[in-house]
Write the structure tokens for this entry.
Amino acid sequence: MPKTPEYFVGKTIVITGAASGIGRATGEIFAREGANVVCADIDIEGAERTANQITQKGGAALATETNVTERKQVEDLIQQALDQFGRIDFLFNSAGAAGRRSTFLEIDDDLMRQTYDLNVNGVFYCMQSVLPHMLENGAGVIVNVASMSHKRGGPGTSVHYASSKGAVLTMTLGVAREFADRGIRCLSISPGPINTAFQAAANTSEETMAQFLNDVPMKRFGEPEEIGELVLFMCSDACGFMTADTVYVSGGGGWR
Ligand SMILES: NC(=O)c1ccc[n+]([C@@H]2O[C@H](COP(=O)([O-])OP(=O)(O)OC[C@H]3O[C@@H](n4cnc5c(N)ncnc54)[C@H](O)[C@@H]3O)[C@@H](O)[C@H]2O)c1
């Protein structure tokens, strides 16, 4: 929650991956607080569904079809957000995926390239495109979604994914520290298993599902809203001295 009531009213957040899961839930939470929400996703129908849900409740939203692996499309996204709302206060990079599961020796060039294009370059393009504008304003908060998996390395199934999320964490650190004295804060969140389409794709059998659950002392998956409320806090004026770090949201466990 913000320190100042109405802190988010009229402010604007750009969210990638807003069609589904954590991105969608975060959009709805920011709209609840009165923020304008730019819903960007490669899945335009999903982005429009999120935006419609927001506008039906009286909020302000814009849906854009954006593939974050394409720099030009990301630049267009930022321009569209500025044309519509005049200013961008927050960026939440939630678009991401694990690709297929693979042992380390079977990760081929395509899988590695696709994973890094989406999880690393997508975040890189979005931050590079929005930062000049935030620097001009002397203010801005960027929150990136990393993953608990960066701690484990993804042995046997997802070294490609875990290492890409390690890069997100490190890029966040660097950007935060480079711009810390110019009004910019940049943070990452490292979730454990969260109930979304992403997690459903990983639960390939009852056995894997049980393994995931066993690994969480709370014996449940997180809900996307439990990440969204943290993003809200991170972007708020109650969180002014926090930058560069990652916050784990994992029910006390890790993601295998
Ligand atoms: N759910 C989990 O258990 C979990 C755990 C740790 C980290 N994460 C991370 O959380 C983030 C959000 O995932 P989620 O769980 O909400 O999954 P999700 O699959 O529900 O949402 C991901 C969204 O990203 C979008 N997307 C994919 N490729 C894109 C592209 N090239 N350009 C733009 N949008 C694209 C998808 O269309 C989808 O709407 C991801 O970065 C994921 O790696 C998820």
Remarks:
- The mean pLDDT is 96.
